[in-house]
């Protein structure tokens, strides 16, 4: 199992994967929902630039989007934001992810998050911020299996943290 940057992926398979995601599911926003293939290819070029911190829309931070691939099968996506602004710090955090419905319940989210946390560590991110809708206990379990703890909450979301230094030194990962 591996993470492949969207700009290095098989674009057709990545497009087909994204088209299995609803526009908004459990807090994961599919920003290419409804795109045709040509629009999707344009988005990949934007993602290539955004991962380098170029041509970022107002309020955006550099990020890298990965496809989780298991033996040439594209099962999910993981987005890693390289840094946080105030909105992300009090909201979505560093990492967002989604597994295609037909591959859920097989441990892909747990493994994909573990791999994404490794990428975060390579970027010298020492504490990963994330959030999860309270009505999504499966995703909360995924985060907890990867060393997360609930930092705080509001009416609809838990805001979790993963201290990557502790995880590297023998935490739950």
Could you provide a short overview of the structure?
The chain is an alpha+beta fold and 173 residues long.
Describe this structure in words.
The structure is a single chain. The protein is α+β, with helices and mostly antiparallel strands. The chain has a single domain, classed as Gcn5-related N-acetyltransferase (GNAT) (Aminopeptidase, 3-Layer(aba) Sandwich), CATH 3.40.630. The strands form three sheets. It has a four-stranded antiparallel β-sheet with strand order 1-4-5-6, sandwiched between helices. It has a three-stranded antiparallel β-sheet with strand order 7-9-8. Strand 8 and strand 9 form a beta hairpin. The longest helix is centred in the N-terminal third of the chain and has 15 residues. The mean pLDDT is 93. InterPro entries: Acyl_CoA_acyltransferase, GNAT_dom. One of its GO terms (molecular function) is acyltransferase activity, transferring groups other than amino-acyl groups. It comes from Roseburia inulinivorans. Keywords: Transferase.
Q: Taking all residues together, what is the mean pLDDT? A: 93
Per CATH, the superfamily is Gcn5-related N-acetyltransferase (GNAT)
CATH topology: Aminopeptidase
Shape: globular
Overall structural class, as computed from helix and strand content, comes to: alpha+beta
Question: Can you give the helix content as a percent range?
Answer: 25-40%
Our count of domains comes out at: 1
Unreliable stretches: none
Strand order of the largest sheet: 1-4-5-6
